[in-house]
Design brief:
single chain; membrane; transmembrane; E_motif; elongated; mainly alpha; 498 residues
Length: 498
């Protein structure tokens, strides 16, 4: 009915197309445009802008990007800088940088908005060096950057970790920008964090009048990435106290920090925060909390969170089984594994690594053997090096050295040094000295530059009283260019003293 009433009035057509886009119906808007053209309604520049907006919300196959340029040219809008800028942004959004530059190059009057669109297209498509080169060309064309330009350029320098260039851009912003807005400041904070200059980032952060969620999150992530976990947590607490709502990624990062610090009190605090806030029920946060409490020593709370989850995925089961394994609850882990199978979840390689580790820690050799066979035969998963390593360790700890050697011999990948060393040490403990020498020789072939392997071989000859062979091993180390490891040391901190 509406279409019949519109007749040839482009203004009313534009109103309908705009309404469809506002209602998040880009496909209907696109087909409305096609119907409009079929009725030979003369389009204007605003119609093209609506078409381009619809195109950015649709899959590329609906309107192939190769047709866009020629279509705009055919309709006579090749000199309309607003249309050309929108067309360039559309190409940039889909990563078609060649067409984006073609639009830019063919536009006679290149204003600051068009330059910004081109620079942003390169920066957002992962070509920061080209974006920086565009800035040079922009200056040569007597066009001066504004705050939008600087956001893209500083982001490019951040991707490149180009601290010196970033400082120049910072100085330019201070000298030339009338409005030093939060977008520029947040981008500068991200640059300094990316380059490890946390003091410079913090100075900008402290001077900001309008800190937003991005400002806080960028600083917290900067402290996290540079290993300053305590400062990151303190800043997060300040963020919460300032009634700034963090995003899900930041909360997840803080949960991970608490897990890495292994602090029971911090873990309880972040758990209370997540439970009281809008993040309750977000599955990946609940999964992270399960892992955090397990590593902080509170397996009971991990079980509570898991049992209260309304929706679970394979990661949920993996986190729970890993936690039970860490605390030596092998039978409980197997019970959860059986429950998971009954509920129809399909285990992956990581989950099998968790259940094998649980069997290993609890010395459940028969159950571990059964799980390993189930992984290969029932679920048709190819074991990783880590799976083989856990199985060999489990069998060696159970005194089943022959079976461990059979596992190694049947591996579809070349066993690494860790697996051989596990078997060697177990063989030595069982007094099977005769075969140990052969295993060590195989190990040296795999890791000819590892001095520990030569030391084991030398020690074996010493135990057997073969002192001439001990000298031969030392000579072999010298000719192979292998140096003896320096003694290690550790530091502990007490009352701020190392």
């Amino acid at each position: 009915m509406v279409v019949r009433l519109l007749t040839q009035d482009a203004f009313r057509w534009n109103a309908v197309l705009g309404g469809l886009l506002t209602a998040n119906c880009p496909q209907k808007a696109f087909f409305g445009f096609l119907y409009m053209r079929g009725r030979r309604v003369r389009v204007d520049g605003y119609t093209i802008l609506l078409l381009l907006k619809a195109f950015t919300l649709l899959p590329a196959f609906i309107f192939p990007s190769e047709r866009l340029h020629s279509y705009v040219f055919k309709l006579g809008f090749e000199s309309n800088i607003i249309v050309q800028t929108s067309l360039l942004k559309t190409y940039g959004l889909f990563g078609n940088l060649q067409s984006a530059f073609k639009v830019f190059d063919e536009t006679p009057q290149k204003d600051i908005v068009l330059w910004n669109a081109l620079i942003a297209a390169y920066e957002q498509s992962g070509h920061p060096s080209i974006a920086a080169e565009c800035l040079r060309s922009m200056f040569n064309g007597n066009v001066r950057p504004n705050e939008v330009t600087l956001v893209s350029i500083i982001s490019s320098f951040s991707q490149l970790a180009a601290l010196a260039h970033g400082r120049v851009a910072h100085g330019y912003a201070i000298k030339n920008l009338i409005r030093f807005d939060s977008f520029v400041q947040n981008t500068l904070i991200r640059l300094y964090c990316r380059c490890g200059r946390m003091r410079a980032a913090r100075r900008i952060f402290e001077k900001m009048r309008g800190r937003n969620e991005v400002s806080w999150s960028t600083m917290i992530n900067g402290y996290t990435d540079t290993g300053r976990l305590t400062l990151a947590l303190d800043l997060f607490k300040n963020m919460v106290a300032a009634d700034v709502i963090p995003d899900e990624v930041t909360v997840l990062s803080v949960v991970t920090m608490c897990m890495n610090l292994g602090s029971f009190e911090l873990g309880k605090w972040i758990d209370d925060y997540v439970t009281r806030s809008r993040y309750r029920g977000i599955i990946r946060l609940e999964n992270a909390l399960i892992g955090m409490h397990s590593k902080c020593g509170d397996i009971r709370r991990s079980c509570e969170i898991f049992n209260l989850m309304k929706v679970r995925n394979v990661v949920s089961w993996t986190s729970m089984i890993q936690g039970l394994a860490l605390h030596g609850h092998g039978m409980d882990a197997l019970t959860r594994f059986a429950q998971m199978q009954r509920e129809g979840f399909w285990p992956d390689e990581i989950l099998f690594l968790a259940i094998l580790s649980a069997c290993n820690y609890a010395n459940l050799v028969a159950e571990g053997r059964k799980c390993f066979k189930s992984m290969v035969l029932e679920y048709e998963l190819m074991p990783w090096m880590e799976h083989y390593g856990v199985m060999v360790d489990m069998l060696c700890r159970g005194g089943l050295l022959n079976e461990a050697f059979e596992i190694i011999s049947g591996m579809h990948i070349k066993p690494d040094g860790v697996i051989w060393r596990t078997l060697i040490r177990a063989s030595q403990e069982e007094g099977q000295v005769g075969i140990v020498g052969q295993f060590i020789d195989l190990l040296i072939k795999i890791e000819p530059e590892n001095s520990e392997n030569y030391i084991m071989k030398s020690s074996l000859h010493g135990i057997n009283g073969e002192w001439n062979n001990v000298e031969d091993v030392r000579h072999e180390m010298g000719t192979s260019g292998v140096s003896k490891k320096s003694p290690g040391c550790s530091w502990i901190e007490a009352k701020h003293l190392a």
